[in-house]
Amino acid sequence: MEMVDLKSQYLKIKPEIDMAIHRVLSNGAFINGPDVKDFQNNLEKYLGVKHVIPCANGTDALQIAMMGLGLMPGDEVITASFTYVATAEVIALLGLVPVLVEAKEFDFTIDPIEIEKAITPKTRAIVPVHLFGQGADMNAIMEIAQKYNLFVIEDTAQALGAKYQLSDGANVSLGTIGDIGCTSFFPSKNLGCFGDGGALFTNNDKLAAAIRMIANHGQKVRYYHDVIGVNSRLDTLQAAILDVKLKYLNNYAEARIHVADTYDNALKSIEGLITPKRIENGTHVFHQYTLRILNGKRDALRKHLEERGIPSMVYYPLPLHFQKAFENERYPIGSMPISERLSSEVLSLPIHTEMLQETQDFIVENVKSFFRL
Ligand SMILES: Cc1ncc(COP(=O)(O)O)c(C=O)c1O
To answer: What tens digit of pLDDT does each residue of 301-340 get?
Structure first.
């Protein structure tokens, strides 16, 4: 058993995928071929956003977003401590100052109250992460951003396809609310390719043009470099694969939600375990199904499952302010008690689009048997 069954997902749409791959192989346009533009247009329609700019991976997308917004060394950028490293890594790489803040216990996403407390005259941007498949508190975050004149970059790597209801009642796609949205097409993501890939989204024409130029060596016209850029492209092959899979993204989300519902029903009454909470004003596309295991029993449950051939993962074993690379006297031990506790409690169970009922029954039975011991 694996956390994610990518092979079965491929086999279900093999003829379409193989045809797309062979089309690219036979026309030979491996870089910036027509499939890149087709996928870009289709993703723009799907998300309801003016511009999608494909790039090489989700980490690059975040970096290019910060370059596109003109953030300068010394500028402070606020993001979550309880997240994947990529978000904070690129802030530091650009000479910006990552300012890590606490999570909400309810859904593990960045706490807007803590964001506001962390704002200084040097703060320029906020990077909320839509962790595990549902939205951070974007209504509150956008209000803060407006009040203090800050940019917002949404890290949508784990929540592509999820919807969010804004304060005015509009239902929009995550990643299209802030100035820029970023995503990853890493194979295990909700929309995953067969290698690395990523994209940026924006409704701002000027920003889109700047981002496109930065992702392409800072050039609009070949060999004329107006700004310092990077080389970050989505391969034509990956775009062709993604364009096929995009048609199934809503079905994939439904399948994941069905698995999550089944886990919820089977596990919610177990004492010592908390099933994932869902926000009311948005969908959860369950990139991860993440339990909290109380009373210091998380690692024992993980071992119990492993001994029975069931994988599980800890996303994430350390909050970023505990990572050596981000050590800073600003964040002593105990400064973010929720993130610190979550790191010792969270356990993600296998979830994917091809989960068989009998496999899930087996997982559930073994989680239950641990708590019966
Ligand atoms: C929240 C988050 N941000 C950024 C990334 C980086 O994406 P990539 O691996 O495509 O660089 C990931 C992917 O693992 C992620 O989960």
So the answer is: 999 999 999 999 999 999 999 999 998 999 999 999 999 9
Q: Is 47 exposed, middle or buried (0-12, 13-18, 19+ CB in 10 A)?
A: buried
Which contiguous run of DSSP H or E holds residue 30?
none
- The token duo for 95 is 């000479």
Span 187-206, average pLDDT: 98
Q: What are the DSSP calls for 264-309, one per residue?
A: HHHHTT-TTEEPPP--SSB----S-EEEEE-TT-HHHHHHHHHHTT
Q: What is the pLDDT of residues 139-149, one digit of tens each?
A: 999 999 999 99
Q: What is the mean pLDDT of the chain?
A: 97
Any idea of the CA torsion for 315, 321, 324, 330, to the nearest 10 degrees? 180
Question: Tens of pLDDT along 82-111?
Answer: 999 999 999 999 999 999 999 999 999 999
Mutate to test the pocket of ligand 1, among 77, 79, 82, 84 (most ligand atoms within 8 A of CB): 84
How far does the centroid of ligand 1 lie from the alpha carbon of residue 110, in Å? 16
157 CB near ligand 1 (under 6 Å): yes
C-beta 129 within 6 A of ligand 1: yes
Collapsed DSSP state (helix, strand, coil) of residue 29: coil
Residues with Cβ within 8 Å of 304's Cβ and at least 6 positions away in sequence, in order, are: 366, 369, 370, 373
What is the number of the ligand 1 atom nearest to the C-alpha of 62?
A: 4
Residue 192 backbone phi and psi in degrees, to 5 = -115, 145
Phi, psi (deg, nearest 5) at residue 182: -125, 145
* Three-class SS state of 162: coil
Q: What are phi and psi of 288, to 5 degrees?
A: -130, 150
Tell me what pLDDT residue 373 has: 73
Cα–ligand 1 centroid distance for 271 (angstroms): 33
| Residue to probe by mutation, ligand 1, list 59, 63, 190, 191, most atoms within 8 Å of CB | 59
Picking from 293, 272, 305, the residue whose alpha carbon sits closest to that of residue 343 is: 293
Q: Which of 62, 186, 188, 285 to mutate to test the pocket of ligand 1 (most atoms within 8 A of CB)?
A: 186
Report CA(198)–ligand 1 centroid distance (Å): 9
